[in-house]
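Known limitations

Files may contain more than one protein. Parsers should not assume a single record per file. Below, a two-record file is shown to illustrate correct handling: read the sequence, read the token line, then continue until end of file.
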Amino acid sequence: MAFEFDHLFICTDVGADEADRLASFGLIEGSSNTHAGQGTANRRFFFHNAMLELLWIHNPEEAKSEPIAPTRLWERWRDRNNGACPFGFCLRCTDSGDTVAFSSWGYRPPYLPETMSIMVGTNSDVLTEPMLFQIPFGQRPDHYPAENSQPLNDSVGLHEITRVELVSPAANSLSPEMQAVINTDQLKVRLGTEYFVELGFDDEQQGKQVDFRPELPLAISW
């Protein structure tokens, strides 16, 4: 089976003012979501093949409720500056069928139809690793139907995410689920003293980089 990177989420402060820094850099913000019943909300930036999501808890009681609690979204967000990995990494399958890249369990959030589920990695309790999940309805943003289309052409000229690399203090002790994602060649991991992600665009042919730390644990290379 073939898999593609669908999107990355980064846990942020409420309201994700960090998005303003991305906009100042030249990215164009797309539509935002409030996930009814899950307790989360976001601000989003879309590229031709994938999406970057800044995510926060807007309703702690929903996030801690029985249907949502197993995702550990509440703990991941609460402890994002205190040892928890603040990221979520989402894949989509490019072949027909329902094969999942990693050992998983079915999560049915209230905002999805009852017949649809998100497959969450069985390492979801391992808060030193990203939340791993795979969605059956994922597709490239440049293939979205007209009614869901998003702005894709920013002033920097970034088009496709071609590298996703996680820097992690826990990189030397990975779960089987995390290793399975690495084996899809959609994510790289290396050891570092703090959590952050490098996103490479368009094979990084221009040799440029901007680092958004400390406001946001993200660097962009192109």
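...continuing to the second record:
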Amino acid sequence: MLFAEDLHVGRTFALGCREVTAADIMAFAGDWDPLPMHVDEAAADRGAFGGLIASGLHTLAIAVRLTVDALVSHTAVYAGREIRSVRMHRPVRPGMTLTGTVTIVEQRLRDDGRGVVVWEIALVDDAGGPVLTMATDSLVDRRP
């Protein structure tokens, strides 16, 4: 288990990867963001992006899942506090494999048994180009 003291500024964690399929894109968007560019391949082909693309919310959800699986589930996170920023750099298309990293950009240890940790999460595509960057902060328990 990682505690606030273990999350030093500059420490980077690999998050692994996730392939995005057309079925994934359409299923997520059908429930949460049913715009034609996400749910209708023919309409998406005629649209501004020239084909089906994942919802930004779907890309964000992938970043969160990779982060939870690789890091947060092994960290004494008390609660998430804030999403400070989210930037979508380029569309996510069917067949892409997204790879993530988390870098600790701020750590403030508090006297109440917790610390504030700011994480910078990044997803890149198969070519290493940025797809999504975001900064969040969480309360993390200090070592007992």
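Parsers that stop after the first record will miss the second one. For reference, the second record is described as follows. The beta strands are 12-19, 77-88, 97-109, 114-124, 130-141.
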